Amino acid sequence: MENLDGPEPEVPAIPRDAATLILIRDRETRPQVLMGQRGATASFFPSRFVFPGGAVDKSDWTVPLAAPMNATCLARLARHDAEPDLTGGLVAAAIRELWEETGLILGTPGGWDTTPPKGWETFAATGHRPTGEGLTYLFRAITPTVLPKRFDARFLMADAALLKTDPDDFSRADSELSYLQWIPLDEARNFKLPHITNVVLDDVAAAIGHDGPPENVRFFYNAPGVKEYRSIA
């Protein structure tokens, strides 16, 4: 497990906005989640199994979504000091990271009316536009102040049935994650996971049993001298 008990630095790293996408399949039988392993030399959670995700790029803010997330999730994304224009960027970043790290497409068939921004060229070349339709805002976590690299991560969830590609075809994935695989939810904790991923799995299990947004979004808040769970209703 990562060391979260070290001394507080004099000036903690500023968290970068980030988005993670949790894909679920076979939710009616034996639910599975898509995860991959980070490299042993990675600067953040080395060798851990994680969901696809990463930092929001400025280009993500300008990506035109084919459809937004549902209103409840969008309102929750905008709370707790999030900049209004960031909400669409979070959705776009989650979809872009999924594409880059797994080669899977979550989007709507169609061309782009504008030139795709940097980082989106290959996604646009597949003939799809990213969409927030069907995505659910599930969890938020700010990484502890003792870590040298920190993120303010929003965890979004979607059903694999929304994918426009074969869910088992990872041939177009980059090298960010290895051993990409669908892991039965009841076996996920047998893998080497970051602490927060173990926590998120509880919320995934609770969300699978019903449709629509959860009653509230748990928020693991970390700041100098403060470490607590909050709720985004």
Mean pLDDT: 92
User: Remind me, CATH topology?
Assistant: Nucleoside Triphosphate Pyrophosphohydrolase
Q: Which superfamily, in CATH terms, is the homologous superfamily?
A: Nucleoside Triphosphate Pyrophosphohydrolase
Give the H and E element order.
EEEEHHEHEEEEHEE
Major sheet size, sense and barrel closure: 9 strands, mixed
Question: Which architecture per CATH?
Answer: Alpha-Beta Complex
- Into which percentage range does the β-strand content fall? 25-35%
Q: What top-tier CATH class fits best? A: Alpha Beta
Using the CA coordinates, give the radius of gyration. Answer: 17 Å
Number of structural domains: 1
Give the end-to-end Cα distance, rounded to a whole number of Å: 30 Å
Structural class: alpha+beta
Protein name: DNA mismatch repair protein MutT
GO molecular function: hydrolase activity, acting on acid anhydrides, in phosphorus-containing anhydrides; metal ion binding
Domain Nudix hydrolase: 15-206
Keywords: Hydrolase, Magnesium, Manganese, Metal-binding
What would you say this structure looks like, in words?
Strands 1, 2, 3, 4, 7, 8, 9, 10 and 11 form a nine-stranded mixed sheet that branches. Strands 5-6 form a two-stranded antiparallel sheet. With 233 residues, the chain is an alpha+beta fold. It is 18% helix and 28% strand. The chain contains four helices and eleven strands, in the order ββββααβαββββαββ. The protein has a single domain (19-232), classed as Nucleoside Triphosphate Pyrophosphohydrolase (Alpha-Beta Complex), CATH 3.90.79. Strand 7 and strand 8 (151-159) form a beta hairpin. The protein has helices at residues 71-77, 86-102, 121-125, 195-208; strands spanning 16-25, 32-38, 49-50, 53-55, 107-109, 128-130, 136-142, 151-159, 177-184, 217-223, 226-232. It starts with 15 loop residues before the first strand and ends with a strand.
